[in-house]
Amino acid sequence: MHAMQYEITLPADYDMEIIRRRVATRGHLLDGFPGLGLKAYLIRERGESSPVNQYAPMYLWSAPEGMNTFLWGPGFQGVVDDFGRPEVQHWTGLLHLEGSAPQALPRTAVRRRERIPDTVRPAEAVEAALAESRRSATLPGVVATALAIDPRHWELLHFSLWAQEPLGAPGDRYEVLHVSAPERDLLGRGKQW
Fold first, then answer.
1. Per-residue DSSP letters for 45-101?
2. CATH number at residue 173
3. Is the pTM of this model over 0.85?
């Protein structure tokens, strides 16, 4: 598994209905994309628990060939043509789990980035994060959860999809507009090594 996200921050007065229409008319185009485990079409709106308007889709790739086909093909070029070339963040997968409500339609996503301090052994930080993700997957309303790491910056990525607004889950909250999950079953279950 490989996690990937780009964040397109939009002007404060941007009409977010434009993004909603974009996803409504184009989101289905990745519903059968080879190598894509899951894409969550995410937005945040300024003033609604967010300081910015943002379109920030999150991808969990089941195969690197799928990610490369997307990035170097017409799908990502459409994003570049419409919004400019965003920085593409990526993390290597550590864990993917179906949650307590795997068949539910996700309404909310939570993303938390956590830097591993220089004083902490990387393996210990990863083991603690794995345990946290396993606990999170059992919470009511969790559709799925993933854990990944960027070893260049020693940053952990905690990502979860929820059937409703989660209470007390730390991190950035997003509204889920659509989910494409053609190879969700190929993301694997549990630890990725």
1. -TTSS-SSEEE--EEEES-HHHHHHHHTSHHHHHHHHHH----EEEEEEEEEEE-S-
2. 3.30.70.100
3. yes
Residue ranges making up the domain that contains 50: 2-191
Contacts (Cβ under 8 Å, ≥6 apart) of 117? none
Over residues 60-74, the mean pLDDT reads 96
DSSP code, position 166: P
Residue 168 DSSP one-character state: S
Tell me the per-residue pLDDT of 146-175, one tens digit each, with 9 for 90 and over. Answer: 999 999 999 999 999 999 999 888 999 999
Q: Phi, psi at residue 85, to the nearest 5°?
A: -85, 110
Determine contact, residues 110/169, Cβ cutoff 8 Å: yes
Q: With contact defined as beta carbons under 8 Å apart, do 95 and 32 qualify?
A: no
